Amino acid sequence: MPRPRSLTSRQLASAALAVIDRDGLTALSMRAVAQELGMSTMGLYRYVQDREDLERLVVERVLSEVDTDLPDSGASWRDQVEVMARRLRDTVGAHPEVIPLTVVHRHHSPAGLRWSETVLAILTTAGMSGERRVIALRALLGYLIGAIQLEHLGPLSGAGTTAITRLPPTDFPLMTATARTAQDMDADREFLGGLRLLLDGLDA
Predict the structure, then answer these.
(1) pLDDT at 155
(2) Residue-number span of the structural domain to which 179 is assigned
(3) Rounded to whole angstroms, how far apart are CA atoms 179 and 103?
(4) Residue of 160, 145, 25, 4 whose CA lies nearest to 88
(5) 196 and 165 belong to one structural domain
(6) Rounded distance, CA 132 to CA 130, Å?
(7) For the segment 32-47, what is each residue's pLDDT rounded down to a tens digit?
(8) DSSP code string of the chain
(9) What local confidence, expressed as pLDDT, does residue 157 receive?
(10) Which of 31, 117, 188, 200 is 20 to 30 A away from residue 158, measured at CA?
(11) Who contacts 25 (Cβ-Cβ below 8 Å, separation ≥6)?
(12) How many structural domains is the chain composed of?
């Protein structure tokens, strides 16, 4: 008879997330997670088939921390969307190495789908439907995914921005000027500024 299972999906996900947070995404493996759990690698195969299964568990583990309750219904739809965007950014941003996995596995995450369901409810209440609602949701997701990746995996500020300011201004006058301005902007201001530009377009 097979041995009874003694680990929950959340325990497996938490162990895999601990490996990623500590050692980076490239360190995620069946062996590393098994060691984190204090078990044999073969024992881990009782619970998951491969690394991809672990990745999906991690994504669900992270996204399950996002508050998907509808924000204050008395607020404008724009303010409600901004609240949802902040919640997603703050939660995913707490685990930067997991960001690439959220892009790949988001469609398999019930928690991620619940976030989208709440946003769609806000957009619907705002009068959006059909193709416009499709475009609005995908535009928001595209912005959030890109902005979170840029903030944590390839920041526009810091060393990269400093390097751009040192380019020959005769060849890159606008890039160097923009980079100098960017040096004085913090991540929150940049993120919210871009989001509000997008919401302006959706509100038009």
Answers:
(1) 54
(2) 77-203
(3) 28
(4) 145
(5) yes
(6) 6
(7) 999 999 999 999 999 9
(8) -PPPP---HHHHHHHHHHHHHHH-GGG--HHHHHHHHTS-HHHHTTT-SSHHHHHHHHHHHHHTTS--S---TTS-HHHHHHHHHHHHHHHHHTSGGGHHHHHHHGGG-HHHHHHHHHHHHHHHHTT--HHHHHHHHHHHHHHHHHHHHHHHTS-SSTHHHHHHHTS-TTT-HHHHHHHHHHTT--HHHHHHHHHHHHHHHHH-
(9) 52
(10) 200
(11) 97, 98, 100, 101
(12) 2
Q: Do 95 and 42 share a structural domain?
A: no
Do residues 18 and 86 share a domain? no
Statement: residue 4 has pLDDT above 50: no
Q: Which CATH number fits the domain that encloses residue 178? A: 1.10.357.10
Q: Where are the beta strands (DSSP E) in the chain?
A: none
Is a pLDDT exceeding 50 seen at residue 1? no
Residues 127-167 pLDDT 10s: 999 999 999 999 999 999 999 988 887 655 567 788 899 99
Global pTM exceeds 0.85: yes
- The more confident residue out of 74 and 20 is 20
* Statement to judge: residues 58 and 90 lie in one domain: no
CB 98 within 8 A of CB 62: yes
Q: What is the pLDDT of residue 27?
A: 97
Q: Are residues 40 and 94 in the same domain?
A: no
Q: Residue 28: in which H helix or E strand, if any?
A: none
Give the model's pLDDT for residue 151.
86
User: Do 29 and 105 sit in the same domain of this protein?
Assistant: no
Inside any domain, residue 31 = yes
